[in-house]
Amino acid sequence: MKILIIGLGGVTNGGKTTLAEKLKKMLPNCDIISQDDFFKPESEVEMDERGFKLYDVLDALYMDEMVKSICNWMKSPASSGVVKELQNPSDNLKNTDDVYILIVEGFLLYNYEPLNELWNRRYFLTLPYEECKRRRSTRVYQPADTPGYFDGHVWPMYLKYKNELEENESNIVYLDGTKSQEELLSFVYTDIIQELNQLME
To answer: What are the extents of the domains in the chain?
Structure first.
């Protein structure tokens, strides 16, 4: 049995979840773990002096629980119940019966050391400031974004963590989140298939 762990990280509203869901439909034995499922309850999230809840930091998440979930999946991926026949398996996707793929998607994946030895491939979606702010304004959050929250907390934290990556981490594929979903899907899918084929050799 072989497993492939794919990281799909990057900016808020960059298209991570959409891309993950589309890849899941195209890849064999594929499952998704979402970082958003590991947020602490609002009462446990710190607040800064401006009254902003600090959600866009590692401390707002149960990261140890997330690592545990990934490791549990790795121990027995077949028991996660995701095994499925592909509708139209492509010609370059043969003999994948005992290959299992986990896509982990979230906004803060590569700044947490215990996760960094797990990835086979890492992708990072980026957006320019204006487009990110526009997309964010169309989404409804619980709790809702307070006035000034994007400029005061969300965007500065994104830049901080992205700069950390660029200084310390290699082997991250940066993706332009303004490209069409089809273009992004095609690129990432092709890249994962190449990785799969190397794994099968």
So the answer is: 2-78+97-200
Candidates 36, 48, 98, 176; catalytic one: 36
Q: Let me know if 36 is a catalytic residue.
A: yes
Q: What is the 3-state secondary structure (H, E, C) of the chain?
A: CEEEEEEEEECCCCCHHHHHHHHHHHCCCEEEEEHHHHECCHHHCCECCCCCECCCCHHHECHHHHHHHHHHHHHCHHHHCCCCCCCCCCCCCCCCCCEEEEEEECCCCCCCHHHCCCCCEEEEEECCHHHHHHHHHCCCCCCCCCCCHHHHHHHHHHHHHHHHHHHHCCCCEEEECCCCHHHHHHHHHHHHHHHHHHHHC
Class of domain 2-78+97-200: alpha beta
Residue segments in the chain with a per-residue pLDDT below the cut of 50: 83, 87-89
Query: What pLDDT does 82 receive?
Result: 53
Q: What is the CA radius of gyration of the chain?
A: 17
Tell me what pLDDT residue 169 has: 78
